[in-house]
Amino acid sequence: MSAAETGRYRLGSITERVALARVQVAALHAELPRWGLVVWTAGNVSQRVAANPEAGPGQHDLLVIKPSGVTYDELTPEAMVVCDLDGNVVDGERAPSSDTAAHAYVYRHMPRVGGVVHTHSTFATAWAARGEEIPCVLTMMADEFGGPIPVGPFAIIGDDSIGEGIVQTLSASRSPAVLMQGHGPFTIGSDARAAVKAAVMLEEVARVVHHARQLGEPLAIAPQAIDVLYHRYQNVYGQRPAPMAATRVEEGA
Predict the structure, then answer these.
(1) Does residue 237 carry a catalytic annotation?
(2) Number of domains in the chain
(3) Catalytic pick from 84, 143, 160, 191?
(4) What is the CATH number of the domain that holds 211?
(5) For this structure, is 183 an active site residue?
């Protein structure tokens, strides 16, 4: 899809924005097995679709998520399920992911969130099984997560309990990732792609810190250094729009 087409969809009707989100969410699901974050049909990616982009996030927004129990090679754009923010199916031929209630709760209570991801990635889930936060001992953790990866409460799937735990935990943290005790990681982002990136980075730091502990106790990074690293990564790192070149108007031109 060209940049012009993408721009048209983003500014177009809700139907067009949902169609674009279906394409994006289907493609992002392929990233989960590619990075080794899921097995079989586990895991899910969702994205918010704003009902009125000019007004910002609202109660009438929709979410796009994968169907429940469907293998990853079947996850086409057409297979994606569209729900309202109460988890009710608006469009789709299959039942949505069993984690839809948790995703919907996050969108209702965290307007800044545009994407949610859940995986059972091996090392992050191992930390969740221990109910232990991952200490901030790596600069890449400070960059991406702004501190330790927090642990959320144990909750049973099927109602708002998991969503409540996610929101409660992440509202008190800069981290876009939470380890739900006895369950696994959930990540959030400004859109689904950002949430997938957080899930990938989470598994990497969970793996590295686990291995570091086999050699001894890792050394924590000082809070002041974490703040500096986090600010730099979030506000300076990567490609930024170039400033407009100053134009000098010559006399007589």
Answers:
(1) yes
(2) 1
(3) 143
(4) 3.40.225.10
(5) yes
pLDDT tens by residue, the chain, 253 residues: 444 444 443 446 999 999 999 999 999 999 999 999 999 999 999 999 999 999 999 999 999 999 999 999 999 999 999 999 999 999 999 999 999 999 999 999 999 999 999 999 999 999 999 999 999 999 999 999 999 999 999 999 989 999 999 999 999 999 999 999 999 999 999 999 999 999 999 999 999 999 999 999 999 999 999 999 999 999 998 877 776 554 444 444 4
Q: Pick the catalytic residue: 9, 29, 61, 183?
A: 183
Residue type, 12: G
Measured distance CA(142)–CA(148) in Å, rounded: 8
Query: For residues 96 and 123, is the Cβ–Cβ distance under 8 A?
Result: no
Give the SS3 label for residue 190: coil
The answer to whether residue 163 sits within a structural domain is yes
Q: Give, in degrees to the nearest 5, the angle at Cα 240 between 143 and 61.
A: 75
Burial of 158 (0-12, 13-18, 19+ CB in 10 A): exposed
Q: Contact at 8 Å (CB) between 165 and 172?
A: no
The three-state secondary structure class of 235 is: helix
Does residue 246 belong to any structural domain of this protein? no
Q: Provide the residue range defining the domain that includes 16.
A: 7-235
Global pTM value: 0.90
From the list 120, 160, 191, 227, the catalytic residue is: 120
In a domain, 249, yes or no: no
- In the annotation, is 118 catalytic? yes
Q: Which structure tokens are listed for 238?
A: 């990567």
H or E stretch covering 64: strand 62-65
With respect to residue 219, please indicate whether it lies within any of the assigned structural domains. yes
Q: Which of 9, 99, 105, 118 is catalytic?
A: 118
